[in-house]
Amino acid sequence: xxxxxxxxxxxxxxxxxxxxxxxxxxxxxxxxxxxxxxxxxxxxxxxxxxxxxxxxxxxxxxxxxxxxxxxxxxxxxxxxxxxxxxxxxxxxxxxxxxxxxxxxxxxxxxxxxxxxxxxxxxxxxxxxxxxxxxxxxxxxxxxxxxxxxxxxxxxxxxxxxxxxxxxxxxxxxxxxxxxxxxxxxxxxxxxxxxxxxxxxxxxxxxxxxxxxxxxxxxxxxxxxxxxxxxxxxxxxxxxxxxxxxxxxxxxxxxxxxxxxxxxxxxxxxxxxxxxxxxxxxxxxxxxxxxxxxxxxxxxxxxxxxxxxxxxxxxxxxxxxxxxxxxxxxxxxxxxxxxxxxxxxxxxxxxxxxxxxxxxxxxxxxxxxxxxxxxxxxxxxxxxxx
Amino acid sequence: xxxxxxxxxxxxxxxxxxxxxxxxxxxxxxxxxxxxxxxxxxxxxxxxxxxxxxxxxxxxxxxxxxxxxxxxxxxxxxxxxxxxxxxxxxxxxxxxxxxxxxxxxxxxxxxxxxxxxxxxxxxxxxxxxxxxxxxxxxxxxxxxxxxxxxxxxxxxxxxxxxxxxxxxxxxxxxxxxxxxxxxxxxxxxxxxxxxxxxxxxxxxxxxxxxxxxxxxxxxxxxxxxxxxxxxxxxxxxxxxxxxxxxxxxxxxxxxxxxxxxxxxxxxxxxxxxxxxxxxxxxxxxxxxxxxxxxxxxxxxxxxxxxxxxxxxxxxxxxxxxxxxxxxxxxxxxxxxxxxxxxxxxxxxxxxxxxxxxxxxxxxxxxxxxxxxxxxxxxxxxxxxxxxxxxxxxxxxxxxxxxxxxxxxxxxxxxxxxxxxxxxxxxxxxxxxxxxxxxxxxxxxxxxxxxxxxxxxxxxxxxxxxxxxxxxxxxxxxxxxxxxxxxxxxxxxxxxxxxxxxxxxxxxxxxxxxxxxxxxxxxxxxxxxxxxxxxxxxxxxxxxxxxxxxxxxxxxxxxxxxxxxxxxxxxxxxxxxxxxxxxxxxxxxxxxxxxxxxxxxxxxxxxxxxxxxxxxxxxxxxxxxxxxxxxxxxxxxxxxxxxxxx
Amino acid sequence: xxxxxxxxxxxxxxxxxxxxxxxxxxxxxxxxxxxxxxxxxxxxxxxxxxxxxxxxxxxxxxxxxxxxxxxxxxxxxxxxxxxxxxxxxxxxxxxxxxxxxxxxxxxxxxxxxxxxxxxxxxxxxxxxxxxxxxxxxxxxxxxxxxxxxxxxxxxxxxxxxxxxxxxxxxxxxxxxxxxxxxxxxxxxxxxxxxxxxxxxxxxxxxxxxxxxxxx
Lengths: 385, 645, 215
What we know:
The complex is a heterotrimer of chains A (385), B (645) and C (215). Chain A is 32% helix and 19% strand.
C-alpha cells in the first residue's frame, strides 16, 4: 500500500478496525482539511450539499454524520491503495517509475484542423478534446476556465467552447466538481482534463470503491496535465493585485526551464515577470507532499517540452488513450513525433525529483510512516537518498 | 362591550394586567401615551392606541424608550396627562432623561409604567427597574393584582399631579400578561388644553422653563416631594394586611408575590400563624406603617422579585427603629430562604415558609410520583425554541452561515435583540456569537472591525431587525462608518416589530393610531451615512449568499446588506400560502450519501418532518405555510413547490 | 352563579400546547365564558419570545371567592387540556395528581430535536398509555383532524373548547361561547366556530366511563 500523502493519525494511532468509522465527512475533515492536505481538486464538491469550494478552498458547510461517503473514498489525499489502482488500470502493481505506467512518450502539437487559438505551448490538449467532442468519442468534457485569476470548472459539450478554456491556471481549481455535475446530468462519455491529484481521484471514482452494483465508468478519456504545484488562490490573488490590476490580465504563463519566471500578460501587450522564488511561498501545503508530476493514472498525460515552447510532451498510458490520439493524428487534428532521448531523460529526472522532494517533506513532517516511505523509496528507480 | 369604552361603573371584565393599566389611565383621563414595544409591556400602548380616536388620545410607538419618555414629558409640561410604557430594559434606555426629569419635575400627571421580566421569560436579562425609583428619588407603586393594576394606574396620575413629579408603576410579566376580574370605574370626561408656560422664574417648576437646573434648588424641591409622598403612602389603601394581630411570622411582599404568598399560606393552612403585609407603595416606604407591623412579631420574611429591594430598605427602617421595635430575624434573599435569581411561584414560597414554620408539605404524593418510573411512562422530548415555518430569519441565517463557512476565515456575527436572537440556536445554525442590548451587535462589530492592527483577520458581521435599526443601531452605525470599521451589517427587515406583535416603527407607512405616516428608508439612511448598501430577498438563498460573500470580501469600510421579507406571522402574510409543497418520494435521497437528510437534520423547519418508516422527508400540511424555501435546499430536487392558484 | 357548581374552589385548569396553536386564544375564550357566569377567573400565561415553537401553557383558575396566583402550585391541576399529545405528559409531570382529568388532542407537533433526529417522539399508543397511567380520567380526541375537515386546522382549539363543554365539569355553555366569539371575532366567523364547538361537544357528551378515546 502506497500513499500520495496520508496523515499520521491513520498510520500511527488509528487501528485498521477504527478506520472505518471515519470514512465519511468527519474523516475527511480530520485527515485532510484540518491537516491542511487539501489541494481543492473538487472531487468532493457536488456529490452532496455539504462540501463547497470557494476561492480555491474546500469547506464543509454543515456536519454530515454518515460513517462512509464518496467524499472520503474519492479523495486523493487520504490513504490510496496505489497497487490496487495500478492493477486495475494497468494490469500490474505499482512500480514507482517516476513517470508511472505508460506505453510511449511522444511529442505533439495541434494540427491545422484545430485552427489557431491562444494555446499554451503546443495546444495538444485542446486539439484532442476538440477532436473527441466533434467526432463523438466524448459527449462532454470537464475543463477549467477562469474569471480573473480564479479558475472556474466548466462542463463543455460544444467543441468550439474548448477554446475558451485554453490557458494554464496556476492556482488550485475544483475542476472535478464539473465532472460530478456531468455525471449527475447523465453524461456517459466524459472527457476530463485534470491535474495529477484530480486524475488520481478520477481513478478512485472509476474503481467503484463503494461497490455500487449499477456503476458504469462515466468517463471516455482522462487527460492528465503535468503539475509541480498549485498556488493557494487567496494569497496568490493578493500577491498579484498588489502589483497589477487583475481586471487587465489576459494570460498567465510559466515557460519551461531554464526560465524561472511567471509571466503575466496585460491588456495592451504589457508583460510583467515575477521570479518563481517569490511565488513558491504561496504553494499549497498539500502540494508539497505530492509525488506525482505526470498524472500517472490518466489515459494520456500532456506537458510542456523543454527547449521547444510550441510543442508538448505526450505520454500515452492506456489503449483508449492511444486510440483517440491515433485517430486525431489520422484526421489531421494532431501532429506527433518521437521524443528526443535527452528530453525523456530530463523528464524522468524532473518527475523523480518531485517524488523525492515529496518523500523528504513527508519524512520531515512525519506525515508518512517509515514503512510507507521505505516502500516508495525501494520501488522508485530514481530516488536514491 | 369593550372594556375600553364600557362606562358602567362596577361592571366586571376579565382584563390582562396591561389592559387594566390602560383602563386605569383612561379613567384618569390620559391624553398622551408613548412607548417602545417590549414583552411584557406592549399591550398597554396597543390597547390605548385602539381607542385613540374615540377617547381623543395621542398615542405613539416612539423610536426608543428615551424618546418615548421625552414625548410623554412634553405632554406633561403642557399640563396634559401622559403615560409612558416600556419593559425593564427600556428603563435603562430612558433612564438618562428620567434622571433629569425627576429633578425638573412634571406638571400634568405623568406615569412611567415599567414591566419587568423576572425569570427572563421573554428577555435577555432579568434586570429590575425598582432601583431607579430609589436612585432617582421617584415614587414607586407595585400592583398586587389586576384590580389594583387598574386602580393604581389611575391613582398614579393624581399622585403625580399632587407632588408635581413623575410616578413609576412597576409591573412584572405575571401581572402584565396574566388576567383576572377587574371592576371598572367611570371613564374620565375631563378635557384638557395643552399649553407650555415658560414665562415665570427659572426656579418656579410649574410655569417657568422646564429644566433640571439649578441643581441644588431642584434637588431640594425633589426631596421635599419624596418626603410628602412617604406621608401620603402611610394612608394608602394599596398597603393591606391580612392575618392575626400578633402573628408568629410577618411576611412583607409586593407585586404578584402577594398572590404567591397568599397561595402558600393557604396550601400550608397557616392562616392563624402568619400575617401578610402587602405593600403597593414600595418607594419611599411608609416608615410609620412598617413600624406598626414590624412591632407585631420578631420574625419577618420578605418575599419579592428579583433582588432584595424591599428587604434592604425594610432592614434600614428596622435598624433605625430598633430601639423601639426590638431586634428582628429576617428571612428573604440574603439568608437564602428565597432565591434571588429567577421568578418566584407559590411552590418556592411554600418551600421557604414550611422550613421557617417547620410544617411538612408535599406537592405531589410519592405514590403518584412513582408512576413516572412505570414501564408505560415515556420520555417527553424537549421542545426547543425555533423560528416559525416560513420565517425569513431561517433563510437569512442559512445564507449568512453558509457565506461565513465558505469564506473560511472564522468570521462571526454579533447578534441583537429580536426573534433573530435565536440565531445562536440550531434553528439559526448557531450563527450569532454575541447577544446583549438593543443595538449592541453593531456597536460591538464597530469595535471588532478596528482590531486588524492587532492581527485580527476574521470577517466581522452584525445583524439587526428593522425596528432595532431605528431604536439603537443608527448611532453605532454612524460610529462604524466614521471610524472606517470593516464590518458588514445585515438588516433583517421583516417589516415590523415582529416579536412583540407587529407594532409599527419609523420604517413603515402607518403609525400606532393607524394613521398614514412618512416612512424612513433604511437603505437611504445607510447610504447617506456613507455605507455600501445592497438589498435582497432572503428567500433567494444562493443569491443572498453570493452577495454576502462579495460584501465580506471587500476590505474596507461599512457594508449594509438589507434582507427584506415579511414575517410569516404578519397580518399580511398569515394564512396566505404562496406555494403548495410536496415531496417526490422517488427523488428524495433520505439518509443516503448525497443528502443525509439536509432538510430535516439541518434546515429544521417545523413544517418539514421526517417519516421514519418511509425514510423520506414529509410536509406537515398543518404547519407548512408554503414559503417554498426548502425546495431550493434539496440536493435531489425532491421538494416540489407549486404556486397556489 | 352558574348552573354547574365547581367541584373544587379554586378549580385549576392548565391549557397547554405549542406556540402558534392558538393556545392563548383558547384560554381567553374559556376565561371569558367562565367570567360570564359570575366567577373570579385568573389566567396566567406567557407569550412573546417564550412562545416561538416552544411549549406554551396557560393556567386558568376559577373561584367563587377571589383571584388566585396566576401560577398553579405543583401537583394541583384539576383538569389538563392539551392541544398536543406529549405536552399533556410534560404538564402531568409537574401539575398532575391522582384525581387530575385530561383532555388531549392526538395530533403531534414534532419538536425541532425530533425533526433533526436527535430526539425521539413516542408513538401515540405510548403517549396514551402514559397519560392514562397519570390521569384516571383521560379523554383523547382528534381535534386537529376534525378541524382540517372543517377547512382550518386552527379550529382544533375551538373543538377542544366544545369538548370541555361536553365534559360537564365546568360551567361552559354554548350561549356564552357564542357571545364571547361575537365579542372578539368578525361576525362572519361565528358559524364555523359554532360548528367546531358543537363537534367537540358531541365528541365527549356521548362518552361514559373512566378512559375515553375517540381519537
